[in-house]
Here is the input.
Amino acid sequence: MKTILVLTDLTKKSENAALYALKLAENMDANIILYHSFKVFQTVVMPETGMWPAEDYNVVEHECLIQLKKLADRMSKHHQPGNFKPAINVYCETGELGARVARLVNDRNIEMVVMGAKSDDILSHILFGSETTSVLDEVKCPILFIPDQCSFHPYKTIVYSTDLKKAYPKAVGFLVEIAGLKNSDIIITHVGETGTFTQGQALDLIKNIFEYPHVTYRQIPQGNISEQLNKFTNLVQADLIVMIHHQHTLLGEIIPGSNSKKMLYSHKTPLLILPD
Here is the structure.
């Protein structure tokens, strides 16, 4: 059975990503694990009063589990009768987020990680700065970022942005699996000059090797990559953007330097990042 791991900070805003994941799980016939990473403050010495007691790990864990279970109950009320009903389990712990999530992905055979992201100048909910990079570098499975207030719609059009450096067969295989849920149209896009992997090879991989016919190719004009990609996504009314993540380089050469942050900060369409 497939499993989707949903990262949450237990705020109202992060609940939107969890509800999106529920609808996605109904379509994928997948179960859900709600995950929260918490911090326990260390004991400090206060000159006037002596020792200031730290928050007890078990107390914090218990309170987090209660909140996770309440979220799971609220999610269950949004289940659409007649669809697959995902089982929703809860889990919380403390520690470095990227390493903890990576271990859980391996131990529980997680199919995908889902997390919230705002459509403005910061990543919201549970991921900020280095933690985003840590999760992307440590976790070796697809990661789906859901913009704030974005609701789930079955994927009719998927924009797949590639650097055309190579085939990325594992990533493309997952892309085809997602597209096949509703026979989505895949639009392969590329900005700049063609790499060692050509347009024809990219189309052939999906059409003939993976035997998925609903695919086309569009060359995007030169310019700011994140801006051009967002414009094209809006033009074709895409429901999902897909990109490749190169280890230790955020989104690799697809969106170099500061453009990587701009894409994560500015996208208003769900963004699926696949490991290469």
Q: What stands out?
A: The longest strand covers residues 30-37. The radius of gyration is 20 Å.
